[in-house]
Amino acid sequence: MIFQLPIDLSIPLISGLFEITLGAQLISQIQNASLMEQAIITSLILGFSGFSVQAQVASILAQTDIRFKPFFFARIMHSVFSAMYTFFLWIPIYERSFRTEKPSSSIPVSFLNEETYLSKVLASFSEIGAIVTIGMLTLYIVLYAKRNVLNKKN
Predict the structure, then answer these.
(1) Which of 19, 26, 114, 115 is deepest in the core (most CB within 10 A)?
(2) Cα angle vertex 15, ends 9, 21, to 5°?
(3) Is residue 77 part of a domain?
(4) Which SS3 state, helix, strand or coil, does residue 114 take?
């Protein structure tokens, strides 16, 4: 098998499929699973949102004409994709950005004196974020105004 997780993660996974906070807590307590394996399973259960949330959504959608099946399928796909993204992006993002020469079981909160690729990307987002937001709002107003003008002519 190409990808295999420790058997100790099965109970937290099943618990997380029902209630995400309980599953995430149980996953964090597994000692013989790597941090990457814990992150993959946690991403999967966070992407799915748990059967308790699915039941709440189903009860709300039952009062509307919106079907539950596409939503449920989308949550399954979201959980699969989030686990896959975690698996494939673990080395480029975590291993290269957050690992130092001294391996540690903790994740650094911030790098005050260190410039990484990820910190540069986040800094550029914070610099241009307001401009992008204002530009999108302007575009929305223009499109909304054009639509109203066309509706008044018809």
Answers:
(1) 26
(2) 100
(3) yes
(4) coil
CA distance 60 to 58: 5
What's the domain range around 120?
Answer: 116-154
| Segment 127-154, tens digit of pLDDT | 888 898 999 999 999 999 998 887 777 6
Nearest residue to 39 via CA among 110, 99, 91: 91
pTM higher than 0.70 for the full model? no
* Residues 123 and 91 grouped into a single domain: no
**Is the separation of the CB atoms in 98 and 107 below 8 Å?**
yes
Are both 30 and 53 inside the same structural domain?
yes
Token couple for 42? 């946690």
* Rounded Cα gap, residues 154 and 138, in angstroms: 25
